[in-house]
Each structure stands twice: as C-alpha cells, then as structure tokens.
Amino acid sequence: MALLNLYNCLNTYLVIGAMLFGFGIYGLVSRRTFIGMLIASELVLSGASMNFMAFNRFLAPDPAIGQIFTLFIMGIAAAEAAIAVSIVIAVYRNYKSIDTEDIVDMHG
Amino acid sequence: MQATICQAAANQSLFSAESFVGIIFLITVGLIIAGAWIAVVSRRLVRCISGLAVCFTGVAGTYYFLLSPFLAMMQMLIYVGAVSILIAFGIMLATPEEGDTAGNKGSPIAGPLGFAVGALMFAALSVLGVKTDWQVFPRTGTGDMEAMGKALLTSHSMVFELISLVLLIAIIGALVLARRGRN
C-alpha cells in the first residue's frame, strides 16, 4: 500500500527531478546534433522546475514563491528554445548540417 | 496544504478513492520515465520530440499532484503546446535527410559515457535528496492564484519586468538570426 501513497512524499518528487536531470545530462553528452542537445536541455530545466515545485509544496513557508519561480523557468525555457531553434536554422542554412562534428570552423 | 514531508500511509483498501489517486500518480510517473527515455535514446528526431511532449504531459500531471493546477495548465500550454511545437518546426526546417537524424554516429564511447555520467548524477542527487533531514517551516501563505498574482506584481515585480524584457529580446534576436543570409 505504500506504493499508492507515494504522491504524498517529498522524496518521490526529488527522485523524479533527479531522474529528469540525469536523463538530460545523458542526452547532452551522447547527442551529436544541436536539436537533440536542445531537447536534452529542456529535460534538465524540467528537472529543476520539479525540484522547485516539490520544495514549494512540502517545505516552503509561502507556497506562492516556488510557483512563481517555476513560471520564470518556463519563460526562460521558451526564450531559450526560440533562440536555439533560430541559431540551428541559421547554421543549417550555412552548413547544410546540424551535426556538431561538422561545424568545426570555430575551432581556435 | 499541510506541511509534512511524508504523510503516513493510511490503512486503505485497494479500491478506495485514495488508491485510485495513487494509481493515477504511478501512471503519471510512468509517462515521465517513458517519455524522457524515448526523448534521449531514440534515433529519429521526430520520435525524440514526441517523447519530450509525453514527458512534459507527465510533468504537468505531477504539478497537479503538487497542488498547483495553474502550473499544470501552464506546463501544458507552454511546454507541450509551444516549446515542443517550436522544436518540431525546427526539425522540419533544418533536418537534412532521412535515417539516423538524431546523429548518434560520433565517438563510440559517448553513449556509454553519457549514460554513466547521467546515472551517476541521478544516483547522487537522489541520495542527497532522500538522506537530507529537511526542515519544515510553518506556513505563512496559501499559495493560490490570488497570492501568486499579488506576489508577481508587488514583491517580484522587478523579475516580472525583466522576464518580459528577456522575451522581447529573444523574439527580436530570433527574427534577426533566422533572417540573416536570406536575400
């Protein structure tokens, strides 16, 4: 029965947040395209939001602050995705590729 | 809205309403895990973005369980509705050919190395979160939408203005970047 009461425990949400973060790090390291890395970075941001919401629900004195923080993270993620997609499109137009190995002109 | 870290499991039958809620929560967590896994390991970028949308749907459900239906709605609107669609447009506009579009053809150790690093981070953060003796503070607010709105326009108005500026600059920057090179 303890399995069905997981949604009332802080630890459950912390583990879910850490799991999203771990998936994001895995994707960031193993992916070779810009869009794949962008998807993985969205997972990392989502894990951070999950932690904020968990602490907001269980520990924080004023439960409005964590929700506001998560809203700001959403705004930053949306802006970041828009910029990243436009950079990807600009890179694709110049190199005909979004593979990170092909974009080696910027090596110092 | 009680401030306890973990409520004791009540003695409930499998077919009570609480058990049903618990089953829905387990389905939500399953959506998160399956979506994130598909988003990270799939070979096709279209499948990655579909997995990301599924994962964000699960995260929205989790926000509902964290007593914030407003954030759950915002998660669906912004992440599932806007960010995923935006990345899908990026895939349509800037993916060269069919086949292994996610591009896992790089260094052969990158996959196992990335998995090791991700698993290590997950284990470390989980142990840190579970082992820490969190301190519960007494509640001073309610955390409903009215309190959020008041906080956004009084104590957090500076950040509110700054994020509107960031979004404006992001829009203009995206337009400039994507338009450059086109005659």
Detailed description of the structure:
The complex is a heterodimer of chains A (108) and B (183). Chain A is built from 3 helices and no strands. The termini of chain A are far apart. Chain A is elongated, with a radius of gyration of 18 Å. The longest helix of chain A has 32 residues. Chain A has a single domain, classed as Helix Hairpins (Orthogonal Bundle). Chain A is mostly helical and 108 residues long. With 183 residues, chain B is mainly α. Among the domains of chain B are: 87 residues, NADH-ubiquinone/plastoquinone oxidoreductase chain 6, subunit NuoJ (Four Helix Bundle (Hemerythrin (Met), subunit A)); 40 residues. The interface between A and B is large, with 87 and 105 residues.
Compose a concise summary of this entry:
With 108 residues, chain A is mainly α.
Number of separate structural domains of chain A = 1
Beta-sheet strand percentage of chain A? Answer: under 5%
CATH H level of the domain at 16-102 in chain B: which superfamily?
Answer: NADH-ubiquinone/plastoquinone oxidoreductase chain 6, subunit NuoJ
Low-confidence stretches of chain B: none
Mean pLDDT rating of chain B: 85
Helical stretch tally of chain A: 3
Largest beta sheet of chain A, briefly? none
